[in-house]
Amino acid sequence: MRKKCPEGFLLTSFVSERFGRINQIYVSLMSMAYMFCYMVSELSAVDGILTLLTGIDFNHLPIIFITITTTLYTAYGGFRSSLLTDKVQGWAIVILLIISTIGFGVSVKLDPGVVSSSPLLQSNQLGWQLLYIMPVAVTFANLFHQGYWQRAFSSKNDRELTLSAFYGSIMLFPTLFLIGFTGIIAAWAGTYPGPDPNNPVGPDMSFFSLYTLLPDWVKGFVLVLTVSLSCSAYDSLQSAMVSTMSNDIFNNKLPLIVIRGLTVIFNVPVVILAIRNLDVLIVFLVGDLIAAAVMPAVLLGLVDSLYFLNGFDSLVGGLGGFFSIFIFGAAYFNSAYEGALLFILSNGLYVGDYSVLGAFLVAPFGSIVFTFLAFGVRLLGMFLLAKIQGRVFEFPKRPDEKPYSTEGESEKTANVIINPDTTEGESENTFNNVVKDSHSMTEV
C-alpha cells in the first residue's frame, strides 16, 4: 500500500487515490466508528480492573481522569507523545508478564480433579466457531486501526517495516497466548466467574481476577502498570482520531485548534458509554464487525487486475457488507428487528447458536459480492448507453492505458521525439529515413 500511495499517511490516503474523495470520507467515518468502539472498551476495561482489584467503587473517576490526562498531553505533544507512551507500554507489558508468571506460579493452586472434570479442554461448538471469528476479526480490525497505519507509513523504509512486523509478531504471539490461557486457569482456580454468584466476574476480567490471589503490593504494582497501558492505548486512538478528522474528513482546511476541540467533544459520548459498564469483548467485536464489512471492498483496490472497480463499486460493497448482516440476521431469527440487533451482537458472544459466526461470515463475503454486483450493474448501464447512442461498447480500460493514436498523429509524435526543432518537411524526411533504416535492420 505504501508503494501504491507513497505520499500517503493513512489507509484513507490510499482510498482517496484509488476510489476518490467520497469513499475517503466514508471509510474515514467508518474508521472513526471503529476507533470509537475501542476507546469505549479501553475505558470500560480499566474501570472494571480497578474496581475488581481494590474492591472500591470509584464512581468511574478513573475513566474521567484517564480521558482528561491523555487529552491534555496528546493535544500538547501530538503523535510524538503517542509514540513515547508506546515505548512505556512495551516495557509495562514485559514487566506485567514477568510479575504474572512468577505470581501465578507461586500463588495459584489448581486442583487436578477440577482440571480433569472441567469441560474447557473438550471440543465444543463455540470453540470451533472462534477459530474463524477471532482471526477474521483481528485481521480486519488491525487494517482499520489508523494508529497502525501511522506507524506503517512513517517507517523509515520497507525493510524496517518488515523487520518490525516480523519481530513484533514473534514477541506478540507468546504474549497473547500466555495472557489468553490465564482465562482457563482462572476458571480452574475458581476466580472466574468468582465465588459470588450475585456478582460474577466477567470473562473480560478473568485474567485480572487471578491477581486477587496475590499479595496487595503486587496488586498495587499491577494497577499502576494497567493504568499506564490504558493511557498508552487510549492516546494512540486519540491521535489517530485527530489525524483522521483533520486530514481525511476536513482535508486539512480547519485550524488544528478546532480539530483538537472536536476531539475533546468526541470524548464525551465515549465517557458516557464507558461508565455504563458495557461488555468489553462485545464492544470490541462490534468494531471488528464494522471493519469486516468495509475493508474487503477496499482491499480489492490493491489487486492490479481489478483496475475496473471504481469508487461506486467499493462504496456499494461496503454498504452491502452491512446489508448482508441484516439479511442473514432477519432470515436466521425470522425477524427483521432481531436482524438489525445483530449489528451490535445484542445476544453476546457466548450463545448456543450460529448467529455471531454467521455475521462474521456474511460481512466480508457479502462486501465482495456486492462490490462485483455493483460493477455488473454499472457495466450493464454502460452497455445500454452505448447501444442507445449507437457507439461500440468497450470494456473499461486501465487508467494508464492510452487510446491508440491515428497514423498521422503517430508520424507527428515520432517527428517530435526524433528532433523537436526540425521543420515539418525535415521531420517528414527524417521519419521516412528512420522507417527505411528499421526495415533494413529487420531484413538483416
From TrEMBL:
<keyword id="KW-0812">Transmembrane</keyword>
<feature type="transmembrane region" description="Helical">
    <location>
        <begin position="254"/>
        <end position="275"/>
    </location>
</feature>
<feature type="transmembrane region" description="Helical">
    <location>
        <begin position="126"/>
        <end position="144"/>
    </location>
</feature>
<dbReference type="GO" id="GO:0005886">
    <property type="term" value="C:plasma membrane"/>
</dbReference>
<dbReference type="InterPro" id="IPR050277">
    <property type="entry name" value="Sodium:Solute_Symporter"/>
</dbReference>
<feature type="transmembrane region" description="Helical">
    <location>
        <begin position="281"/>
        <end position="303"/>
    </location>
</feature>
<feature type="region of interest" description="Disordered">
    <location>
        <begin position="399"/>
        <end position="431"/>
    </location>
</feature>
<dbReference type="GO" id="GO:0015606">
    <property type="term" value="F:spermidine transmembrane transporter activity"/>
</dbReference>
<feature type="compositionally biased region" description="Basic and acidic residues">
    <location>
        <begin position="399"/>
        <end position="412"/>
    </location>
</feature>
<keyword id="KW-0472">Membrane</keyword>
<protein>
    <submittedName>
        <fullName>Urea transporter</fullName>
    </submittedName>
</protein>
<keyword id="KW-1133">Transmembrane helix</keyword>
<feature type="transmembrane region" description="Helical">
    <location>
        <begin position="315"/>
        <end position="334"/>
    </location>
</feature>
<keyword id="KW-0813">Transport</keyword>
<feature type="transmembrane region" description="Helical">
    <location>
        <begin position="354"/>
        <end position="381"/>
    </location>
</feature>
<feature type="transmembrane region" description="Helical">
    <location>
        <begin position="58"/>
        <end position="76"/>
    </location>
</feature>
<feature type="transmembrane region" description="Helical">
    <location>
        <begin position="88"/>
        <end position="106"/>
    </location>
</feature>
<feature type="transmembrane region" description="Helical">
    <location>
        <begin position="208"/>
        <end position="234"/>
    </location>
</feature>
<feature type="transmembrane region" description="Helical">
    <location>
        <begin position="25"/>
        <end position="46"/>
    </location>
</feature>
<dbReference type="Pfam" id="PF00474">
    <property type="entry name" value="SSF"/>
</dbReference>
<dbReference type="InterPro" id="IPR001734">
    <property type="entry name" value="Na/solute_symporter"/>
</dbReference>
<dbReference type="InterPro" id="IPR038377">
    <property type="entry name" value="Na/Glc_symporter_sf"/>
</dbReference>
<feature type="transmembrane region" description="Helical">
    <location>
        <begin position="165"/>
        <end position="188"/>
    </location>
</feature>
<comment type="similarity">
    <text>Belongs to the sodium:solute symporter (SSF) (TC 2.A.21) family.</text>
</comment>
